[in-house]
Amino acid sequence: MSSTAIPTKMRALFLVKRVTDFNQVDLASCFEVREVDVPTPTSGQVLVKVECSPINPSNLSILKGEYSDSSKSPLPSLLGTEASGTVVASGGGFFAWTMLGKRVGVFGNEGMWAEYVCVNALSCVSLPDDVSFEGGASCFVNPLTVVAFVEIAQARGIKALVHTAGASALGKMLVKHAKDAGIDVIAVVRRPEQAKILDAIGA
Questions:
Q1: pTM, whole model, 2 decimals?
Q2: Per its UniProt entry, which superkingdom is the organism in (predicted)?
Q3: How high is the pLDDT of residue 40?
C-alpha cells in the first residue's frame, strides 16, 4: 500500500573503494552515484522517501574500513545509517500500516544515503510537526550515545565528564542531558565563539 506515486528507479551513493585519507586528491573516485531500483517493502517494513541523512563520525570510519568489521564488507556498498523522510509505502503489518504518510526519523543498516530506503517499521520514530527533517535525521545515533554516556557515568558515580568534541551536535546534547542528571561537562572546543554557544546552554 502506498500514499503517493513512487518511481521505479532512484539514485543512491555507493562506496566503490576504501578511503585512505580524506585529504587524498582522488577522494571523489571512491564514490559513485548510481541509478538502482527503488526497494519494495516486505511485511513489517515501510518505504521512506529520504529528505535528509547525516554524516556521523562512524560513517567516516566505515568509509575507511575502520569501524567494527566494515573492512570485510564487499564493495561496492551502500552508505548511511540514519535519515529522515516520509513513509510513502507499507509492506503490510499493523504498525507499518499506521506509519503510512508520517514524517519519520529512521535508523538501520547501510543504505540511507539514497532517495528511498526500506526499513523495519519499528525502526521509525514519528516526528512532531515542530521538528524539521534536518533535526529528525539525527534522532538516533547522537541522542542514544548521549544517554549511554550519562547512564554509564551515573552507574560509576562519576560527577564530571570531559568531552573533546564539545562544539559538535553530540556535545551540545551531552551538556543539556548531563546537566539535567547533575553531571558537569568539561567541553573542549577550538574557538572562543564555540565556548560562548556552550556557555549559553549551561556548560
A1: 0.81
A2: Eukaryota
A3: 96
CA-based nearest residue to 199, from 183, 190, 186: 186
pLDDT of residue 101: 95
- b/e map of 128-151 (b: 16 or more CB within 10 Å)? eeeeebeebbbbbbbbebbeebbe
Per-residue pLDDT, 3: 61
Task: Identify the segments of the chain with pLDDT beneath 70.
Answer: 1-3, 68-71
Residue 162's nearest CA partner among 153, 9, 26, 194 is: 153
CATH 3.40.50.720 fits 141-200, yes or no: yes
**Residue pair 83/106 in contact by the 8 Å Cβ criterion:** yes
Domain at 9-134, CATH class? alpha beta
- The number of C-alpha atoms within 13 Å of 4 and in the hemisphere containing its C-beta is 11
Locate CATH 3.90.180.10 in the chain: 9-134
Question: How many CB atoms lie under 10 A from the CB of residue 58?
Answer: 16
Find the angle CA(92)-CA(94)-CA(98) to the nearest 5 degrees.
Answer: 95
